[in-house]
Structure formats: structure tokens, C-alpha cells
Amino acid sequence: MAGRxxxxxxxxxxxxxxxxxxxxxxxxxxxxxxxxxxxxxxAVSLVFLCMMALAVVTVQWVGFGYxxxxxxxxxxxxxxxxxxxxxxxxxxxxHPNAATVPGIVFxxxxxxxxGLTPGLALGxxxxxxxxxxxxxxxxxxxxxVYDPIAYWVWAPxxxxxxxxxxxxxxxxxxxxxxxxAALAFYAVLGKRRGFGSEKFGPHNHLNILLGFAFLFFGWxxxxxxxxxxxxxxxxxxxxxxxxxxxxxxxxxxALGFWQQRRFSSFHFCSGAVAGMVCVxxxxxxxxxxAAVPMGxxxxxxxxxxxxxxxxxxxxxxxxxxxxxxxxGVLGLLxxxxxxxxxxxxxxxxxxxxxxxxxxxxxxxIQLAAAAAAAAxxxxxxxxxxxxxxxxxxxxxx
Length: 397
Known about the structure:
Blueprint: H1 10-37, H2 43-70, H3 103-122, H4 131-154, H5 159-163, H6 171-189, H7 205-224, H8 233-260, H9 265-279, H10 291-311, H11 320-338, H12 341-344, H13 361-389
Helix pairs in contact: 1-2, 1-3, 1-7, 2-3, 2-4, 3-4, 3-6, 4-6, 4-13, 6-11, 6-13, 7-8, 7-9, 8-9, 8-10, 9-10, 9-11, 10-11, 11-13
Main location: membrane
Keywords: Ammonia transport, Membrane, Transmembrane, Transmembrane helix, Transport
Transmembrane segments: 12-34, 46-69, 104-122, 134-154, 166-188, 208-229, 235-258, 265-283, 289-306, 318-339, 363-385
């Protein structure tokens, strides 16, 4: 039934293709963003690693990753089957998650999400890693961390999906997973040489601003690409992304000025990213006004998470854990507060909403999802990193 031409919508298909291109732009954007935050000698390697991560994940995704992460026929609540290995039967027939779009379009759109996520995690090990081990790790990590979490949340048979989790665009599989994987990188690799005795800081603010601009631009496709155009939910996701990023950026700049008595473009970029991270799981589940308190919360919580990391001596030079890990968990919890059944129901989807609809139980479900994604990502990432680091050819530093 899903494969009939009468079920497919050309407008939705074109929008998802355009959104795929927008999310692709986030990959070099992430590389440039990271490159400006490290010393100049490591700048090119981070852009290269982000692009190579996308290439490695694309091969994995076509081979078997898509089938593991988004299988619609698996009877397991934990992981997909191999029905679509090599993209078998991925073509015109639609996936249940995007019933008006050809399956191949949905698959390549999701490939961009999978390719971006390990690049985010690499920021936690910036300036300490060798290329070959990182590329092998990217392939393994996507298989054993990203794919299972994506299946739990987004696949029709996933255990968190059955539980009723609300995670529109990647609070679990992208943000929380990458943040806690970055923390695992630090736990295994330790600090950079000279950390604490030498001065480390951004070397190129123009690269940071350029990379941030690509990230902000691409995030509209990231959050709104899978939402309905005709019901207006894509427009809501577009606007909540913009508002949360703007509010969090302003809050972070204000907190930085209060501490240092100067305005910083770096502060604005970090804050805006934190705001968009926070609103990602809620993007088309909440009304536009809810993006304001979510952006405020992200700006404050992630700012002080960065401060706490520095005081604890954690060498996360890109602040991946503080922004994506903390911001992702915060966004999942706030989705449980602000999710609005009226907004979700615009395209005919039924949901009880969050605490504002009197459905406080949603908070417990969101907490369970955040805890499961964080624990799985950190635990499995740590185990894989330790195992690989014990083999001389795969030693990371």
C-alpha cells in the first residue's frame, strides 16, 4: 500500500531531498566550526575527518546500517534485521516513517543524520587522534551505538518507540549519543599534552563563524525535513529551531559578558548551537513560544556545564559533552514538558502530549530514553575504544 503512486506526494519528496542537501552542508560546517576552535596545526585534519566520517558511514549505511537502524519488519525491540542489506528493496515503496515519500529518499535523508553524528563525537578527542583508528572506530561506532539507539527511538518496532518516547529529530541517537561518546573519548585518551600548563584556545574565529553559519542553515533541514508541509508542522519546526538558537545565543553572550565584560562571537555561536541541540527532539512537537524557555534553559545549563567541565579538568576542547550531551538530555526532558497534543495532531498524529497537557507521565518516558541513550553510548563507546586502543595499529594517540 505504501508503494502506490497515489500515496506519494511530490512536494514532500522535493522538500526531503532539499533537506538532505541542507543536512549535508552541516558536515563541512561542523568541520570548519571545529577547526577554528583548535590550534592551527590541527585545523585541516578536523575538516578532513568530518568529511571522511560521512564517507565511511555512507558505505556502512548502504551495506547494512539502514536496515539495522530503521527496519520496518524486524520483530526485535532492540535492533533491525538485514532485510535491506545493500539497499535491497529500498526504492519507490515508502517507509512507515515517511509514508508520502519514496523509500530511497527517506533512506538517504537518514544517511546524512548517521554521517553527521560520529563527526560530532570526534570533537571530544580533537588534537589527540590518528586518522586510521578514527575511521575504523567510526564504522564500528555507527554499527554498535548509533544504529541500535536510532532503532529504539525511530523504528516502528523499537522499544522506546513502543514506550511512547517523543524525539522528533535526534535528541537520543544524535545529540545525547554523540555527547556521551565524546565523554568516553576523553575517559580513554585523557588530556592533550600541555593541557593546564599551556594556553589553548580558538585560533580562527572566522572559521568558527563560517562553520556555525553552515550548521545553522543546515539545521533547518535537519529539524524540519521530516515534518509535514501541508499541516504546517514543517514551518513550526523551522521556526522553533530559529527561535531556540537565537534565544540561547543571546543568553550565552549575556552570561559571557557578565563574567568577562566583553562580547564574544564564539559565545554566540556556542549558545546558538546549544539552543538548537535542545529543541531538536521537540522541533515539531511544541508551539513556537515553547522554544523561548527551551532556548533560555539551554543557554544557561550548557554555559555552566562548560564551566563545570573546565573546573573538573575535563579536556573537551570543543565542548561536545557540555553542549550536545547536556543539551540533548535537557531537550528530551523539556520535550516531555512542552510537547503539545494540538501541535502533534495537526497532521493527524495522535499523542497525549507532555506535562502542559496534563500528561506528566511523558516526563518519565523521556527520562528513561535519555538515560538509556546516555548509558549505552558511553558504555559501548568506552568498551570499543579500550579494545581498539589495546591493539598497536589502532592506538588512537
